[in-house]
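Readers of this paper often ask what the protein records in our data store actually look like. Such a record has a labelled line for the sequence and another for the backbone structure tokens. Nothing more is needed to write down the fold, since each code stands for a local backbone conformation. The record that follows is passed on verbatim for readers who wish to inspect the format.
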Amino acid sequence: MKNVRIKKGSIEHIDEVMKILRRTIKPFENPISTEIGHLTQSPYMVLVSCLLSLRTMDKVTGPVCKRLFAIAHTPEQIASMPLKKLEDLIRPVNFYKTKALRIKEISKQIVKEHSGKVPLTFEELLSFKGVGRKTANIVMVYGHSSTDHIAVDIHVHRIPNRLGWISTSKPEDTEERLKQIVPKKYWSQINDWLVAFGQNICLPVAPKCSICPLFVYCERRGVTKSR
């Protein structure tokens, strides 16, 4: 890219940015819910892993998911599990008591109202207490293999704003704007790529701009300190 002038933040370069992202994140681990989706093809396990991961780092959530799913990995099994046992199994994650209760309630609801199957529609997923747009989108993309949704977490919200692609203050607005500007062929992958990139290079505080392969494309909005 030397001696090439690029209009930073331009959405004209989204294809090039996405190609760079795909190459850059190869050495990094997948987000936990994505990995579980790839390994199990189970919408229910994706849903549970996403609920467990809320406000908890993947390095904590991953082992918890492995321990839980070795014992129970269906809504029927978790719905019938004593709450105390479920709490003990997921104890390392933040807010484990609240999450245990929420997961158990949702599991019962899936068994009772949906014949043990995770609903196929975004709207039905949102009807579960504790399931927001991010979780519902993750289940649709990585559980149901939908190509019509974009999962927006803190990284997917922050990085397009930092690049200068969009100017949004709320994740739901980011989701809508990204659907308008990002080619649909990337919708099911953008969460994976930006989460891995945001966890390893484009950090929330003091991003690693000196080694960032997207530096030439980035307006660095909101960046006051980098390394």
Q: What stands out?
A: The mean pLDDT is 94. The CA atoms of residues 25 and 197 lie 6 Å apart. The domain at 11-29+150-217 is CATH 1.10.1670.10 (Endonuclease Iii, domain 2).
